[in-house]
Structures are given as C-alpha cells and as structure tokens.
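Q: Could you predict the 3D structure of Glucosamine-6-phosphate deaminase?
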Amino acid sequence: MKVIVAENKIQGGAKAFELFEKEIKNGAKVLGLATGSTPETLYQNWVNSDLNCSNLTSINLDEYVGLTPDNPQSYHYFMQKHLFDKKPFKKTYIPDGTTKDPSVTCKEYDEIIKKNPIDLQLLGIGRNGHIAFNEPGTPFNIGTHEVKLTENTIKANSRFFDNIDDVPKSAICMGTANIMASKKIVLMAFGEKKAEAIKKTIEGPITEEVPASILQKHPDVTIICDKAAAQELD
Ligand code: F6R
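A: Sure. Here are the predicted structure tokens for Glucosamine-6-phosphate deaminase:
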C-alpha cells in the first residue's frame, strides 16, 4: 500500500485529483465513485478543472433503498450536485434505490460491473473501518447486496429527515469482492476520528471485523489521508 499524508483535507483533495487526472489521461475509462463528506474536496478540484469527462463511465458504490434520485438525501442527488451537473460523463451508474426487488437490482449491478471493469475505485472509510456499506462482520467474498441499516444509523440519519419513518431502512451496496476486483484503488480519510480505522486498515490484521483491512491484499492501493487521520501510524 502506498500512503500519502497531506497537511489537511484541502491538500488531500488536490492530491487525489492529481492522481485521478493522471490515470484518466493514461487511459482509465471506468471510475468507481463514492459519496460522503470525504470526497468533497476531490470533487471541488474536479469541477474546477478543465478535465473532459465525456468519455468516462462511473459506477457508484451505493444508494439508499426507497429514495428517488431527486431526494436531496439520495446519493444520486449528491453525485449530480457535486460532480455530474458540472462534469457530464458518458454514462453514470448508481444502484436504483426505487427498485421493487433489491435482489434483482443487485444482480444487475454485478453484471454492470462485470461488463465495465473498474479502472480506478475511490473509497472513503467509516470510523469502524467500513467501506461502502460493508460493515464489520460482512463476508469479504460477496458482490452487490442489500444491507439493513442498524437502529443507530437510522437514528443518526433521522436528523436529515422530517420524520424518523422517512429514514431509509436499507441500502444497496457493492460488496468487498466488487471493490477488490478494481484495477487500482484510492482510499481517502480525513480527521482524527478516522485515525484508528486507518491504523487498523494499514497495520492491523486482515479481518472481516475491519472491512478495509482486506485492501492489504490488493496490489495497487493508495491511501490519501491528512495528518490527523495518519497520527496513529507507526
Ligand atoms: C459513501 C460510502 C461510505 C463513506 C464512509 C465515510 O459512498 O460508501 O462508506 O465513504 O461512510 O463517510 P464520510 O466521508 O462522510 O466520512
């Protein structure tokens, strides 16, 4: 694993954009993308650049079940707002949160990934080491699947909704096997709250209790973190 320690999330975002731009200029055509607060500085650099994305395909990690693309809490909405509105791609894939049959949608998503092998996958990381919605204990060998959200996550998310009953109860997300099949992976992490997860990911044992620890087995991973997220590394 290559580890790049930036001063802060602004520099980290600029570094991550440099890396994406270089890979795209070198021929990367299919990008795996993530949502959340971590990639925001990367996307800011991206939309302010002159990089042409009309040849690119993107495949996002996850989406809530039950949210329509125009719902401001949906990951569709997030991607439009932070990247696609300003940088149109040739084709963008995000799991269909409005599906009546998540298991069919998951199989279709696996097919999409098989037909469009991911050249460069972007990841954030949760405080507990989760990647996408693959929480501790999720088997390493699974593909796209539906994840039931825990009571804690539902409660935490309820601040974004008028009513707790409107909070999604599940999400569709790429599995660790899909992520590991990507040719290159960039994981970003900012802030001291991510320090323990970053230490376990890089220096800890490979265990399903720390989903990101599987990345130690991938041949081409770059971790971009700020000083705060790197503070526990040896
Ligand atoms: C987002 C995703 C999540 C986040 C992670 C970190 O598509 O799959 O795994 O990357 O929860 O979230 P932030 O960046 O908000 O700290």
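Q: Anything worth pointing out?
A: The chain has a mean pLDDT of 96.
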